[in-house]
Each structure stands twice: as structure tokens, then as C-alpha cells.
Amino acid sequence: MPTSFAQIRLPLLAAVLASGLAGCASTPPPTGDLSAAQQAVIRADDADADQYAPQDLAAARSALSGAQAAMSQGKDEDARRLALTAAAEADLAFAHSRETLANAELNQRRAEIAELRRRLQSGGDQ
């Protein structure tokens, strides 16, 4: 007796459903993203971002807290998004802090050069 379409359809439908469900459940928790965000916040904090880029650092800490809360509630996609936001904000805080420090050092060197030029022009008496 030949195989009917109904006999083939049921196993095929079961295979399609099983592969679709497996695809939905395969997203791992964003522990790596959360860890990277924590490290970025620490790096920004170590670069004195609390003094030189406080708004950026506060945004990073807020996003990190949100990511940790979302993770504990099992909201992995929200946790991943917030962790990536926290890392980006922390990197921005780090960059702003480093820029401020570099500009301060540049201004100090320019002042030293101006003083040296002044001394050279006055004949080096001082």
C-alpha cells in the first residue's frame, strides 16, 4: 500500500515544530555581556570618571543596575541590551575622563612653553 500524504505530514509537522521551539530557547543568558559591562564601569571609575565625567558614569551605573535586575528576573534580552548600553556609557565616561586629563596636561605644557619663551625673550635673567 502506498504512503499517503497524511502519514508523511504528521512527522514533518512535528520536526518543524521541534526545530522552531529549539531555536527560540537557544539564547544563552548574557553573563558575558554583564561581566564586560561591570569591567567597563570599573575601568571608567579607575580613570576618575566620577570626577571628570560624572553624568556618563552615572548613566553607565544605572544601565548596569538595570541589566542586573533584568537578569535576575530572567529577562535576558533586556539584560543584554542594558549591559551593552552600560558598557558603551562606561567607555564614554572613560574617554571623557581621559580627554579631560590629557587637555589639562596639554594646557600645563603650553604654560611651561610660554614661560620658557618669556624667559628667552627677556634674556634669561630670571
From TrEMBL:
First and last residue of the signal peptide: 1-24
Pfam family, any one: DUF4398
Domain DUF4398: from-to ranges: 33-108
UniProt key word Ligase: no
UniProt-listed InterPro entries: DUF4398 (IPR025511)
Record's keyword terms, sorted: Signal
Protein name: DUF4398 domain-containing protein
